[in-house]
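Much of our argument rests on the idea that a fold can be written as discrete symbols. Part of our work consisted of pairing the sequence of a single chain with a tokenised description of its backbone. We regard such an encoding as a compact summary of how the chain folds. The amino acid sequence and the backbone structure tokens for this protein are reproduced below.
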Amino acid sequence: MSSTDMASFQIDPEDRRDFFTILSRFSSGPSSPVRLFRHPDNVFAVYGPDAEMVAVEFYQNSSFARTVNIPADDEDGRDDSLQYINIGPQRVEKFLGMVTCDKKRAVVLYAQSGKEWAARKELGSGDHGSIDEFLFLDAEETSEQSSLVFALSFQAINQGLVVGVAAFDPVMQEFAVCQFADDHRYSCLESIIVEHSPKECIVDNSKPAEDQNLVKLFESRSIPFSLVNKNLFSTASLEHDLKRLLSGNIQQYLVDLEKTVAMKALAGLLHNVGASANDALNGRCSLVPLELHEFMKPLDSNASRALNLFPSISDPNTDSSLFGVLNKCKTASGTRLLHQWIRQPLMSISAINDRLDLVEAFSKDSHLNSTFRDSFLKKVPDLTKLSMKFQTGRATLADCVQLYQFTVHLPLGLSVLGDIFDLHQDDITPLFSTKIIVPLQQINGDFNQFNQLIEKTVDFEAIDRHEFIVRADFAAELMSMKKNKDVILSQIDELANKMDEELSMSGKLKLNYKDGLGYHLRVTRKEEKALRGHRKVICLETRKDGVRFTTTELKALNASYNEISSHYNKFQNTVVEKCLSVVASYCPLIDHCGRILSKVDVLSSFAFVANHSNGYVRPVLLAPGSRTLRLKASRHPCLELQPHVESYVSNDVEMDADRRFQIITGPNMGGKSTYLRQIALIVIMAQIGSFVPCDSATVTVCDRILSRIGAGDSQLRGISTFYAEMLEASSMLRLASKNSLIIIDELGRGTSTSEGFGLAWAISDYICHRLQCLSLFATHFHELTELSFSCSAVVNRHVTAHTSDNHITMLYEVVDGACDRSFGIHVAEIAQFPPEVIQMAREKIIELESVNSANERENDRLFFAELKKLPIDSMSDDDLLRACSSMLDVA
């Protein structure tokens, strides 16, 4: 693409006023997302006030932001102006990193469909791990998820509401429905929207537009929504429409038809997507349940960052994130699938065990697995992108050749898979066979005709010359032009040999071909002096690898060759178009093969990690509700790989329904946070089907992992660190169920000690008695360990440290029992505080402890003095207990 194209305004003149109107509806400011528009030829653009920000912050030059005039839409109107800046495809990844990580702003990608612009994808603030996935999704390469259209209907019940959801997938020609009870924060609705990523939501206007919780839900996910007259959600003609649209007898859909709120949503969906008037859909659609619980509920962005699920742009170390540790994938589609799996851990034990069975199969023979990965998977192209190019008419003959090279390579992969399969004749034969071997064998056979077509059509000898052309013997006209090209190529070879003799190069002169230069001659920089002053030499360019030059005669031969090649290409275009249309019919087969191989790639990557680690084991999965977590010698999957860690200290975890709440105390830097994080990561690894870093592991499937880790504020939103803590804790208590896992790393630090402790105690008590889920709480409130006296499910544990002569050595071992002292002064000494500061701190501690002791003694004296005044002999036990409680409250 030329620099002129990159600087030009990408919107056609007749569409500029409408586009300007669309932009004017968007909010702008430092807290709003940056809206990135993808135009044809992969030109990205930012419009409005953010264009100047991009110019100054990214390009470091304000003049890069240009201004275009927007003509008025009538003679009396005023013209407007619009700032814009274009970003080339080679720079967009760096731009996204700057915006999300440096500027802490989200990015929404917009793509055009016809005349309309729609949000296709959002990249959250700091979410650098999703950039590859974000860039992969463009206007023409929209995933199946983004093709979904949702319609929502609501019905109030008691203090809550019932939500009906209907979805339509135009690719699969499938309707899906569900309904569920939800709260007024739309917690369940948010989960299903995150899980299915609709491109648009249609809402019946019985739900007021001022419902800020609903509006915030859509805005936070950058999902366009529209309020539609509730009359259009009438089910009066729904059954008639479904009889016409659905395949099979409508009686088979009775279970779904009884979901009255969902049916209202479906009626509105049929009307708004035009399905009720589209005869092309008659008898071709299906109606299925919209699944809600296939995956673990998604972690929020704070939890994802705290657990280091995905790499940070500021940390080049790939082993610092779970994605980096597990991503040994050899294919682009495998890498994308792994990213999706980490975001969506499974809930189904059978599905998880299917993955684990295949990982175990690949891990049994590490040599065979490595052979399969290096000799086959490494050479697999991005089949998803290839298929999309054929579907959208953007493919070339070169893409056909790339696909052909894969299909002829497929039998090698099948052969190695067969060797792996033979190792498991008695173990997982049906699974390995039905999931991998048999489908790939069928695909390999189905590609036979494709291979014959390419072999009959493509000139493979020309590929060595970087030409992708039709075979000359395909038609007489092509054969004639091919002979003429061969004659010219022979003359070019003779000319090269002649120049080699004239320049006395003794075979050192090379004949090369390069796009833009054509056929030319090249000598090394060392031999360049032989060219000086030679009358025939016309220098083209000088580079590190040598000097490229031509001659008048060679230029003439090049021109003749290019002319014949042009005629050849024009004639073959018709043949190529027919070939591409035939290859496009193989797209379902390419997609199927891509899905299988991407899964195989991820699973073989899991096996590779397990074989090349310090010891990974297959986890045993228990059904939700079992509330058992038993890990022997567990380790943090990322931390143990860091170069500064010589010997990682493993720890056991033993939790069940009777020991479900662990309180972990101990010194700073002692390993409390690491202990919490490694448990959460091991649960995630188990539920995506990976082996885990333990000697043994029994894991109950969790429906959600909720975390309160780290301290952060949001100055732009006026949220302090403490308020952010409270918001996270409130959300955690609201969303958790008995089948969740909660991890809390410190709580209540941003307020007074007494208030902080009170909140920590109350939240812990609520989790213990009300939620009753598996929970771990790392804290410096040692008094919190007394919660074990009021709840038998509380287990106190602490991280160990050795102290001597005012020195502290961290042992990083988590053992039973509460920590009986604090180590803040020791940590301050390690941080090399000035000695006078350390001494003053020690004196203050002694002073405060003496004051507290004096207060306690005075309270005891007052209590016993009042107790002596009571007529104990005449009081009942209940009266005496109430009187003592009252005096204790006063004391």
